[in-house]
Amino acid sequence: MEEAASAAAGAGGTTTIPTSDAPIPVSSDASTSPGDGAASTDPSATATAAATVGDDEQDSKEVVLRRYFLLEWEIVSTILRRIVDAGGVAEPADVQRIRSIMDKYQEEGQLLEPYLESIVSPLMLLVRSKTTELYSGTDELLDIIKPLCIIIYTLVTVCGYKSIIKFFPHQVSDLEFAVALLEKCHTMSSVTALRQESTGEMETKCVVLLWLYILVLIPFDISSVDTSIAISDHMDGSEVVPLVTRILDICKDYLCSSGPMRRMSGLLLARLLTRPDMLKVFSSFMEWAQKILLAVTDDFVDQFRSIGIVEALASIFKIGNRRGLSDAAPGTWNDCSVVMKTNIAARSSLLRKFLVKLAQRVALISLPPRSPSWRYQSVSSSLVANFSASTNGSGCSSCSAQQVNIDQTNTSSLEEDMDVPETVEEIIDLLLTGLRDSDTIVRWSAAKGVGRITACLTPALSEEVLTSILQLFSPGEGDGSWHGGCLALAELARRGLLLPSSFPDVIPVIIKALHYDVRRGPHSIGSHVRDAAAYVCWAFGRAYTNFDMKAVLQQLAPHLLTVACYDREVNCRRAASAAFQENVGRQGTFPHGIDIVNAADYFALASRSNSYMNVAVSVAQYKEYLYPFAEELLCNKITHWERSLRELSAQALSMLVQYDMKYFAGYALEKIFPCTLSSDLCTRHGATLASGEIALKLYQLGFTFTTDMQKALSGIVPAIEKARLYRGKGGEIMRSAVSRFIACISMAGISLNEKTKKSLLETLNENLRHPNSQIQCASVDALKHFIPTHLVSSGEKIANDIISKYMALLDDPNVAARRGAALALGILPYKFLALKWMPVISKLCSSCTIEVMKLPVGISNFQY
């Protein structure tokens, strides 16, 4: 009613936005002829209006908007002026041009909001004018209305229907015209041919339904508007108004649609049936809905109709009066519980989502409205207030003194006798089950329902709900339960329903969720759980004061930054960074918080390699985060299922050595050495790479290796060969890792005995013959460092033997062996090549000769 009561009386004139954000006025008089002219749409009017703005903030906003939209607005305003002057769309290309411009703003619809009135009002007044003529004219006018509705519906998809319907005409006399237009659209035959451009039928129906969504809010009895009643001059009080019947019949048909008309008709039904003068119509609709839902079958038409009905009922229970809906709540819940058990609900995640949404709104109707006095309330949500308090040095003390905290009050005084209906208990069980659903949209809706219902309960009952939510994090639960539990905890925290006294039970669970990663065959699952856990931490930062969050942040910060720097998924890295940034900003001073936020920003974390090699290294300079980072890499990342991530983690681990060499030379290497012989391929591959990279970094930093450490490092490769870990699955991966390990210990100058030298050289020579080019390149790189370090000083005999062996391989029938030998000869040191440089060059030149393929006997070159 408020929307209709605030409507402007006039239908014509010039439409502008009465704020400083007003763009360019466009004539909205649909009846103006082309010769009459239209209001000026000169873009300079915007600059003139902006110059008079006194508020710097508004002026800055206008400048930004014009910067991004000014050029296109000139095009759009020209097309709009041409449409208004012509009384319709003369050129079909104009519609496509506007659509292509508007579609670019799908992600930034707010940039269009200052221009919406200038676009929507003149077009809707044209639609209204043509609808009035259509009421007494021919159906050809529909061809004029359709292109206009395509433009309006494009704006609906970009900015949302709530932003658009504010500029629809809403005179009382428009109601019958709009219903007549909807009937015309409903009865016309649909074009089923596939075509790139829209025919405008669907868009017209949606726009008219939204128009009626506003018109049915008129503050008069609808029977007083229906002219058919005045013509018949009589109507029984028990009869339904004919105009309402027409709307209901069409909306019921659209409820079984698979398109956007289903949602629009549900919104229209919600506004219509919740009017005070629609009690009989509401009862009739509820009976019809119950009949359809209880008779649902596996037919796909019934599936769409069920979704439409449940969605409409959810909208009704959202905006309806509590007193009017309380009688219908039990029956609606019974129907909801029956449909939830059907095969259609099991197959349709969308239907389950709306059933969960409807169930929670039934519960809210069944519970008495209340604002829980036990809810956590922070002193101030202002960043300025938080920073000023922390600057004065009295932030924590003032918070502790003023904070209304459940831990410091007598909970017995907050306990109230509350009779919870059995229906509500069943609905809460349904929502807790919904948190385990296989689809995210169902879990998300269930989490919001848990938060809304908990706000209406007593502290004791809310504790029971929290206990049930924490059970979702049991070891036997799947990833869906963990995700749903995190969403529910976030909703409770946002609403102040998760009290600080519950932190000891909640925080350990959130820390586990931040690292949730379960291996499933050749991949893992859990990114959505980690993302939701970061959302919980973000909600903590917004909901609680620094006094209550100080100890919690000390636990969460290392884990948040670990996820922000080392998570495999970019959305998880950014979510954790956003949560950390929110806590730094909301909670006042935090050790190194601003420096870390500047380093781990949204764009820096976009690249995984940059996050591992640069951002993490920058954050790890602070001792609070160095050891959690190292532990994450040692325990999780170098054993990850993805090969590229293991290789990157080994390099990232070596970058942290500079901050504590003793830790990595002692604890880290001792932990890694046994893992090089693990039966798990990922573990031994990552451990082998990490051992070599750490050893090399220690040498570069000037660390002196003890005899025992050198013996342990030199014995890794022989132990791997003895265990025959080159064979079977993963042998190729281990060959590359071993080659890199040999290169690292060679550069690090690890001493080797003669037997080990011979063994490592045989390993590299064997890898040279491998057909995999990556293994060959890794082996060549290792020889480049191994030979100068360990073999140059062994004498000419070793040098001659190595050169002779590689020259002999150039005649090998195996192409891979010849390629490997040529690569190896290219990296031999000067002292080796100086002995036989002429034979080596001659042999390499002869190996470059193109070979003639020998064909089988009896086949000529031409035949081949």
What this model shows, in words?
With 864 residues, the protein is mainly α. It is 65% helix and 1% strand. It contains 44 helices and 4 strands. The chain has a two-stranded antiparallel ribbon with strand order 1-2. The chain has a two-stranded antiparallel sheet with strand order 3-4. The longest helix has 31 residues, at 56-86. It starts with a helix and ends in a 17-residue tail after the last helix. The relative contact order is 0.03. Residues 350-594 form the Tubulin-folding cofactor D ARM repeats domain. Residues 1-56 are annotated as: Disordered. InterPro entries: ARM_TBCD_2nd (IPR058033), TBCD (IPR033162). Residues 36-53 have a biased composition (Low complexity). This is Tubulin-folding cofactor D ARM repeats domain-containing protein.
Short account of what is shown:
By secondary structure, this protein is mainly alpha-helical. The chain has 44 helices and four strands.
